[in-house]
Structures are given as C-alpha cells and as structure tokens.
Amino acid sequence: MARAVVTVPAQAKRGEIVEIKTLAAHAMETGFRRTQLGELVPRDIIRRFTCTYNGVEVYRVDLHPAVAANPLIAFTTTATETGTLSFQWVGDNGYSVTEIAAIRVE
Amino acid sequence: MTARAARLILALAAARLFVEPAAAGEIPSSERRSGYEFMSRETRAMQDDDTGNPGTLWMLDGEALWKRKAGTADRACSDCHGDARESMKAVAARYPAFDPALRRPVNLEQRINACRVGRQKAPGLAYESKDLLALTAYVARQSRGLPINITIDARTRPFLEAGREAFFRRQGQLNLACAQCHDDHWSGKLAGSPITQAHPTGYPLYRLEWQGLGSLERRLRGCLTGVRAESYPYGAPELVNLELYLMWRANGMRMETPAVRP
User: Fold this and answer.
1) Are residues B156 and B66 in the same domain?
2) Max CA-CA distance within chain B?
3) Confidence of residue B238 (pLDDT cuts 50, 70, 90)
4) Which of B39, B50, B133, B150 could be disulfide-bonded to B248 (CB atoms 3.0-4.6 Å)?
5) Class of A4-105 in CATH
6) Are B157 and B31 within one domain?
7) Nearest-CA distance from A80 to chain B in Å?
8) Which domain does B257 fall in, by range?
9) Active site residue B223
10) Are residues B160 and B253 part of one domain?
11) Domain for residue B227, yes or no?
C-alpha cells in the first residue's frame, strides 16, 4: 500500500503563515546495503517531493539515500487564497503518490 | 591514589554489577516509568503528534484491513466486531489473554490470526508482516491512554510464573538475566543508551533503529540475541509467557500504542 498522510489547517486568515506536515510510507532503501549473501540491495528511494498551491509550486525537496524511512516533511507557506494544495512524491521503480488537501482562506 | 589504582577500582566496581546476585528485584510501583520518560524531547514529540508519528501509517493501513473482506468466509473484521473504536476499546490492554481452546495464553497477534484462520477462513498472516503489524497496531490503538489490565487466575498463573522465571534466569554466553539490567540497573546506560525498565506499554511500536513498526516479540528476540542467547521463534510459548509477565508487571500503566522509541 503506497500511503501518504498530509496535515493542512482547514482554514486560515489571508496572509497567515500555515504549517503543513506530510508523512509518506516508504522504505528509503539506500542501495548501499547488502544481503547476508553479499548481494547489493538495489536502491529504492523517493527522489522528489513537490507541493503546489492552486497550481503554483510553493515547495520542493530532492531526497537522497541518507534520508530515513517514512520521511516526515514539514514546511510553511503563506495562505493566499482559497483552493487546493497538491502534494506529489516521485521515486525509484515508478513510485508515485499524489495527495490533495483543501484550504479555505478568509 | 594512583591513576592505575583508580582504574582498578572502577573495573572491579563494573564487574561487581553483573557478578553479584540480583538485588531486591522487582521495581516498586511508585518508581515504575515508561520507556517514554527515558526518551529525548524530540522523540517524545514525534510520539505525541499523530501527524508526525510514523506509526500512523500502519494505523491507517490497519483501519483499511479491518474493513476489508478476506478468506473463503468473505467476511471482514468489521462484519462481526463492528466499529473497532468501540468494540476493541481496552482489548489490547488485557493481552496476552487465556485462550480456552489452546489452554494457554495467546498474544494479540495470535488472537488476530486465530480469528483470520477460524472465522474468516483465510490464511494466517506471517509474524512481523506489514498486514499483521498494521491490524495489531490498529486494534491496540483503541487502548491508547487506558491502563494495562492483566488479570491472573488459576489458569494463567503457571504461565505468569514461567515468564517470571525466564525474566530472572541468567541466559546466553553473557550469562545475564533480564532482571539484572531492567530491574537492577534501569537508571544506568548501556553503550550510551538508557537502560529502561522494560514495560511494554506501546507495542507494536515504531523504533527508529528498525526504521519501522515491530512487535514486542521482535524486541525480546533482539534482547536475547544481545545477551548471546539463542532466541525463540516468533509465537513460541516461552516468548508469550515472558510477554504475559512483562504486561502484568506493567499493570496500571497507560498504553501508548503506537509508541515511538529510539
């Protein structure tokens, strides 16, 4: 099950700085580990996380093999207008998860 | 006193820790502490905040599995048990519990698998598999904040005593008993990490070292390997007896599932 959880305040005042938290289920296999038989475990990580606010990119992260499993990404943005925040995680082996959250700005 | 003499005294003191017979033994209830209290501020914050606690990912999977039909009986957990938030409240706090059919205590994972095989007519889930951990975490989450409540009667007493005996028995190449660390030296450190009191309040829990969720049996097997003892396979009666003793020992402490530990 590819799963991700996002936490966004349901409503905010215009101009307010809001905190957004995201949690994605992913093993983040580094590609440097070996099995007991000495075979390399292939790398399997999330490569990129992006957040768009009404279609405009507001936050982006490039992830690397040193990031822990199930990465928690927390950041802030300014609440400008009512609309949707879209979150996308893209990674190795065709991993792709998209989540959407609504925010109401008064 | 020369530096050499000081070193000798230190070495002797360290050796005494593990050579002397176990002191008074069990921790008085006023001094009992959850592993939570030994953690850093950051790790506590991770556990307390559902939006940042990675255990939430397993919980949500467990919630989905609870409602999914499985097996030839084509029934979901929720078809018999309804809403887990009501029907599973405080259930995990009384496990391991006596199973009249097997005539011995079973832990929560075994209880879930018994239901899967017996009622849903589905193949049992493997120990430590994602699905079994997710379902166990979801069921145990319904006891969060509630006191552990193991009742011992004539049927379960022999198993409790067997678990207690295992806790105080020296084992492995290091010849250590659980009690020597967890009863006698819980305020100390081992390789820089705090030695805790071994109260299983938050299982299954997310361990940062594991980078994932794991059961109490996984923890016990890790500890057994640590003292260079041969560990029991998952689901072994010896492990369940020890789980029963540890949960009984933590009676009255609050459940924290899904907890986070370093």
Assistant:
1) no
2) 77
3) very high
4) B150
5) mainly beta
6) yes
7) 24
8) 26-39+151-261
9) yes
10) yes
11) yes
The per-residue pLDDT for range A68-80, each reduced to its tens digit, is: 999 999 999 999 9
**Is position B3 within any domain?**
no
Residues in chain B, overall count = 262
Q: What is the torsional sign of CA B201, B207, B213, B217?
A: negative
**Cβ neighbours of residue B21 closer than 8 Å, sequence gap 6 or more:** none
Do B190 and B234 fall into the same domain?
yes
- Euclidean distance between CA atoms B238 and A76, whole angstroms: 50
Tell which A residues from 36 to 95 touch B, by Cβ distance under 8 Å.
68-70, 72, 74
Tell me what ipTM this predicted complex has: 0.88
Q: Are B213 and B204 in contact (CB under 8 A)?
A: yes
- Is B52's CB within 8 Å of A72's CB? yes
Each residue's pLDDT tens digit, B164-192 = 999 999 999 999 999 999 999 998 999 89
B177 in the same domain as B250: yes
Nearest to A50 by CA among A6, A8, A103, A88: A88
Is B173 touching A (CB cutoff 8 A)?
Answer: no
Best of A7, A23, A33 to mutate (most B CBs within 10 Å, chain B): A23
